[in-house]
């Protein structure tokens, strides 16, 4: 009997704590929750326990209904957000600097909401917004300069037109005076005036010509600056799909690349291979040299991968120290040879830590996607081959079964 009492008391406290944990999530039910928690701690006999159980059952049903309502509200908000994003995408079809952000939001709302995914997207979008804010301001200034130069150009043309128009009027007047001249002195006077006006219009035309050349050059420079800033805006948008540490694709960028390359492979009946890489002894690097050194090792590997592979290949950071390489138009034997060559290149390019050369190696598994195979299954086969490579002694490349 004593043991039974000793066992029930902690259970009462545990039940009360479980109820009190709902206070933050259900502030409007504070009084009811506190009353139930107080009853749970005070239960002393079977009758009180039965009454509490009945009250708890009603309380859990109420919470379940509230959660169901919240889920419906959440689904409704996601549907509205999806419509909004699609609408913005159509309106901003020509603004390529928005494509990365729109694709990111589409990717998030197309799958179940996940705290980590939302946090990563929020961080990437915030960085893109800051960078694009500076670029948009510079772009606005460049466009204003271009407009001012065009206005100057038009004003110069207008001035030239006015001066030549006045000159034509004077020539007509001179022709009328010549017809009425009756002696050589009068004709000589008219000729002097004509020569004076002619020199004046030549000087004006020459100045206008030089001004137009300078203005045209400045306008060309301003136009080139506008194109450059617009390109930088587009590139900043693409950074939403990049891993912030290594510059490789992140999971969203990888998903889009896989979808594109698999569709192309199916359409053209060409092979595509996936290689999973994992740095050997990475935990030891982190534990003995610190996480900053580990991060620098990841950056070093990503850099060597990009320098070694073809422009058509893609590399994504798949996990902590894992990278996934997409090799389009590549069969299994060629893909294994490519990743093996990458291993040799990595051994040639030492990683420096406090002026000491460190040899970084990786184990890899390579899988060729079979017809109609989804990306996740091919990645799984490459992942299993990679773990087999590690078990076989590390620093190896194995083809997947």
Give structural notes.
With 401 residues, the chain is an alpha+beta fold. Among the domains are: 2-91, no CATH class; 251-399, 2-Layer Sandwich (Alpha-Beta Plaits). Helix content is 72%, strand content 9%. It contains eleven helices and seven strands. The strands form two sheets. A five-stranded mixed sheet has the order 2-3-1-6-7, sandwiched between helices. A two-stranded antiparallel sheet has the order 4-5. Helix 3 (46-91) packs antiparallel against helix 4 and helix 9 (291-308) packs across helix 10 (332-348). It is extended. The two termini are 62 Å apart. Mean pLDDT is 72; it is low at 1-7 and 89-94.
Give a short synopsis of this structure.
With 401 residues, this protein is of the alpha+beta class.
Q: What share of the residues lie within helices?
A: over 70%
Low-pLDDT windows of residues: 1-7, 89-94
Largest sheet properties: 5 strands, mixed
User: Strand order, biggest sheet?
Assistant: 2-3-1-6-7
Q: Encode the helix/strand succession as letters.
A: HHHHHHHEHHEEHEEEHE
């Amino acid at each position: 009997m004593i043991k039974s009492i000793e066992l029930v008391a902690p259970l009462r406290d545990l039940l009360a704590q479980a109820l009190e944990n709902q206070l933050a999530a259900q502030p409007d039910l504070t009084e009811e929750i506190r009353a139930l928690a107080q009853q749970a701690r005070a239960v002393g006999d079977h009758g009180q326990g039965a009454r509490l159980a009945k009250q708890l059952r009603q309380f859990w049903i109420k919470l379940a209904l509230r959660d169901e309502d919240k889920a419906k509200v959440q689904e409704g908000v996601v549907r509205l957000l999806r419509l909004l994003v699609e609408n913005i995408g159509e309106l901003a079809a020509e603004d390529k600097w928005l494509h990365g952000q729109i694709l990111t939001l589409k990717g998030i709302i197309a799958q179940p909401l996940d705290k980590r995914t939302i946090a990563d997207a929020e961080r990437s979008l915030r960085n893109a917004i800051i960078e694009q804010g500076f670029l948009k301001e510079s772009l606005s200034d460049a466009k204003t300069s271009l407009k001012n130069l065009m206005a100057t150009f038009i004003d110069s043309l207008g001035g030239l037109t006015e001066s030549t128009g006045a000159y034509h009027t004077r020539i007509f007047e001179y022709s009328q005076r010549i017809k009425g001249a009756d002696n050589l002195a009068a004709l000589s006077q008219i000729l002097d005036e004509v020569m004076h006006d002619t020199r004046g219009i030549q000087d004006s035309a020459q100045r206008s010509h030089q001004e137009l050349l300078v203005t045209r050059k400045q306008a060309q420079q301003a136009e080139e600056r506008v194109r450059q800033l617009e390109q930088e805006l587009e590139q900043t948008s693409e950074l939403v799909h990049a891993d912030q540490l290594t510059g490789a694709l992140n999971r969203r960028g990888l998903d889009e690349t896989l979808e594109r390359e698999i569709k192309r492979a199916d359409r053209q009946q060409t092979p595509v291979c996936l290689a999973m890489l994992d740095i050997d002894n990475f935990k030891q690097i982190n534990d003995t040299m610190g996480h900053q050194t580990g991060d620098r090792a990841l950056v070093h590997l990503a850099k060597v991968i990009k320098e070694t592979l073809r422009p058509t290949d893609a590399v994504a950071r798949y996990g902590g120290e894992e990278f996934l390489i997409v090799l389009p138009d590549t069969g299994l034997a060629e893909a294994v040879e490519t990743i093996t060559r990458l291993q040799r290149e990595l051994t040639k390019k030492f990683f420096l830590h406090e002026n000491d050369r460190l040899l970084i190696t990786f184990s890899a598994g390579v899988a060729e996607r079979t017809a109609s195979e989804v990306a996740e299954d091919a990645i799984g086969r490459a992942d299993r081959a990679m773990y087999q490579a590690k078990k076989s002694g590390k620093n190896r490349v194995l083809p997947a079964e």
